[in-house]
Structure formats: structure tokens, C-alpha cells
């Protein structure tokens, strides 16, 4: 009965039966099998006290040497992030199998203790595909994408294991986040030699990888070749098109999805709304939002409201967007206010921006810095340096730290990272010299004029120009021009929104050097060709 309740996740009944067994006395004492099942049930409880009491019974009845019981205890303590207790169980076990090591390893990876996990993984006498999966998924879950790909390559060199579907989905996600197209292609080649290409999870991961690596054509090819399209497949394609600013195509695929009888979920509609926002399809986006509940039975979440605010704000309909926020059935969060404030910056509406920062101060008492940066940008673009200084003082008083601009570029399968004003790259002197040459040609032959509005300090014109010249995406593109053959597309991933000056520079560089330059910033793709950006300067 305990086993049955455990399998049905009826953890309280399982524990109650266990207590009854103990109360009946020695004629019905629990054995190692009983302990294994009841500990598994305790892992599903909301508090650890149940499992801890079972552990005490394990010790009392002398079952603490059984491997299966101890493996269950390791999993239990890992679930509740009691890794010190898990360590004691692990170290006192007389016999440890691969499940033991992997259970303990999983506890570290689940709770972002990857350095401990690396140390433990290195000591494992035996590893199976689950062990590798735990490590690689742990790296991806903590944003250590380069490490995930390194461990995947190590896994491929281990003749005793083969990557499973979960590992392949994880490493494709890592490639997507890094914009590592070459490595993504190699993983696809590996997949094509297996039967896993038919998996919808793999197809969805490939669509996402190609889209985030700038190859929307390859993403479309995977989508068109997928015979069993579930809602996640459709959503992946719609989100991919939206990310590339192809809102009309996203709406077309969405319409096709509905025609084939596939019901959208809330993530699907989020992708559609994003596509409308990045393409200026105001009425189409509002129509989709209005139909969410009545047509598809989906109640809009705050993310959907945020998309509509962004949609209206980007189109310059700031008052309509502000009224929409005021009519929201839930309290607007910081993301909604930032979306509107960002539109105020684009359209230089200081009065509304100042109103919004008051709301941000109330919604964001801990002082997340995004709103203040946007307001500071707005003041700086208008040359109102006293107000910029005032915002900066508020940020200092609240100890708000800004995110450092960071860009990544993959060359010959190696991902290189740059930060603004980078001095750490081993070829930085050569890169700076190349960048100076590139910007000079962009000015003389491409019509590039430095836009110093992104500079948030009252500096001389020369100092401002120098400040924007060393943005991370400019360093990355200079490195790309240095390190790739003429005509090769350059793909850059940026952690923040691309600034106005870098956007102008990329257009000129693409024209002068006859290169396609693809920049994936925080919210969308920009594909620069022959002096024109795919966003049509609407971003």
C-alpha cells in the first residue's frame, strides 16, 4: 500500500501508513523496501520534517547501510537543499553505485552549486548518461553555456555513453544562448545520424537554435520538415519569426496553426504579440489580445499586458499605452512600466517619463536600475545634464549597479566574449587598431556620424565619441572582420539593447565592408545588409 500511494504521489497517506506500521510493533517492522518508498513520498512533501523522522527510523532499525535506502535519502535531502545532511549520508555509505554519485551530484546542480558538482563529477569512478545529463543541464540552467558545450564534447569522447535526447536539447539551448552556430550545426549533424531527429523536442530545439543564431531560413526548413507539429513546435516557429521582426510572417504561421486545429497556449500568444510589437502591427496585435479570452479561453497574464504596452508605445501611442496600463486588472509590475518608459525615451516624452519613474519607485522599492537608466538616457538625449546628475545621485543613494554591456561572437567554433572598453582579450590591441580603421572608413565611405546621445555623462564631444567607440558590439564586429574571410556573415549576441550609435555604425560597416552583420540584442534581431537594417529603424 505504501508503494501504491508513493507511485500515485499521495505522500501523506504513504507516511500515515508508515507510522501505523511502526505503531504495530516488531511483527510488522518496515524493511529496506518500505523505507525506499516512504522516503520517496516524503520528497514530495512541502516540509522536510517527515523525511527526517523516517531517516531517524532508518538509523534506529539499522538500515543505514543499504544502498537503495541511502540513495532515496540523498534524493530527499537534495530536494530540500539540505546538502550538508546529504553529504553526511553520502560519506557514511559503505557502498556507492553510480546512482548514489548521480543523486548527490544532482543535488548540487539543482541548487546552483556547480563548482561543488564539478569537483564531485571529477571523482566519480563511473559515469552513465544520466550523470552527464545532470552536469550539462546544470551548466545550462546556471547560464554557463560554454562549460555545457565543453562537457558535451567530453561526453562524445567517452565510448561508454551516448548523448540522450535531454542532453541534446540542453546543448542546443546552450548554442542558442551563445549564438554558437558552428557548434549547433555539428550537433545537428550528430543528431541526423540517429533516430532522434524525428523527436518533436529535438525539432523544437533546432528551430530555437537556428533562429537565435540568426538563421531564420534554417529554422523555417526544420519547421517545414517536421511532420508532427505540436503546440510547442508552432510556438517555437512563431517566436522565432517574431524575434527577427517578421511580424506578418508570424501572423501567417499563427493563422496556419489555427487552420490546422491546433489550439494556442499563452506562450504562443505572447510570441504573436511580440511579433506585432516589433513590426508596428498595432491593430493586429490589439485584435489578438482582445480575442485571447473569448476565442481561446486564455486569460491574459501580465506578460501579455506588457506586450500590448510595448506595442502601443513603440508606435508612439504613448497616451493610449498609459491609459491601457491604468485599466489593467492587476497591479503593473516593473517590466510594464519599463516598457512604457522605454517608449518615452524613443519618442522623447519627458513629462510622461517623469510620471512613470514615480510609479517605478513605488513598484520597485529595492531599486532595480533599468527604469532609472532609461530616464537618464531620456534626459541625456535632450542635453539636460542637471537632471542626469540627479538621476545618477538617486541611483548611487540606492546602490543600484548597472549591467555591463557584453557581446559574444563565435569564430571557428570558439566563442569570444567582449565587454565595453574591453582590455582583457589577448588580441585587444590589434582589435582596437582594426576598430579605429573600420570606424574611419564607415565615416568617410558609409556616411556614419557618431551619435553621442547614449553617453550619460556631460563630457566633451571628443570624450563622448571615444566612449561610444568602445562598445562591446563594435569590438566584436572588429574582431569578426579580423578573423573571418571577406564576405562571411558576422553574428554577434548582445546582452543589452543595441544603442543608437552602434546601430548606425553597423549599417555603415555592412555597406562599406560588404558584410552581413547580424546582432541579436536583448529583445530582437537586427540584420544589417548593404547599409540597411531588417528592423527598418523600428526597434
UniProtKB/TrEMBL annotation:
Q: Which InterPro entries match?
A: DYW_dom, E_motif, PPR_At4g14850-like_plant, PPR_rpt, TPR-like_helical_dom_sf
Can you say where the PPR repeats lie in this chain? 97-131, 230-264
**Domain DYW stretches:** 447-539
The UniProt entry's coiled-coil ranges are: none
Alphabetized UniProt keyword annotations: Repeat
Kindly state a single biological-process term from the GO annotations of this entry.
RNA modification
Gene3D superfamilies per UniProt: Tetratricopeptide repeat domain
Please give one Gene Ontology molecular function term for this protein: mRNA binding
The family this protein is said to belong to = Belongs to the PPR family. PCMP-H subfamily.
What name goes with this protein?
DYW domain-containing protein
